[in-house]
């Protein structure tokens, strides 16, 4: 997992890359599916937390 921050229009863009899943493996596909569904929720919470502290 890699988090990268980029300055953008007076703010910061967060780029999250979550890689390394073996999609040829049932376990790898299951891990990707499970984690992929959670990231939108986590990132929404992060955005809300950052907005509240700004």
How would you sum up this structure, described in words?
It is built from 1 helix and 2 strands, in the order ββα. The model has no long low-confidence stretch (mean pLDDT 90). With 54 residues, it is α+β, with helices and mostly antiparallel strands. The longest helix is centred in the C-terminal third of the chain and has 28 residues.
Mean pLDDT: 90
Estimate the strand proportion: 25-35%
Radius of gyration: 14 Å
User: Mind summarizing the main beta sheet?
Assistant: 2 strands, antiparallel
**Got a strand count?**
2
Q: DSSP helix count?
A: 1
Strand-helix topology:
Layout: E1 2-8, E2 11-17, H1 26-53
Antiparallel strand pairs: 1-2
Question: Can I get a quick summary?
Answer:
This protein has 1 helix and 2 strands; from the N terminus they run ββα.
Throw out a few tags for this protein.
elongated; two-stranded antiparallel sheet; 1 helix; alpha+beta; 54 residues
């Amino acid at each position: 997992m890699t988090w990268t921050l980029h300055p953008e229009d007076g703010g910061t863009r967060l780029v999250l890359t979550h890689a390394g899943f073996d999609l040829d493996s049932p376990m790898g596909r299951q891990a990707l599916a499970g984690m992929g569904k959670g990231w939108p929720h986590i990132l929404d919470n992060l955005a809300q937390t950052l907005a509240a502290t700004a």
